[in-house]
Request: fold
Amino acid sequence: MKLFGRKSHPTVCPKCGGKVVPIVYGMPLPEMEEKADRGEVILGGCCIAVDEHGRQLDPQWGCVDCDERF
Ligand SMILES: [Zn+2]
Reply:
């Protein structure tokens, strides 16, 4: 299985210049909810969309300021 995230991830939002954090998918653990409350991650929901090759289609990064996802 190939790992995701080979391309360098953005550190600032291309739209507003805000903080970019990883979007976490799957059932949120309590610690993930705490991180989301602190603005360290964005909870993306429990369903992950993948294509026929198993590649993730959903955005992996989100902006905590304007909610832009990419
Ligand atoms: Zn933004």
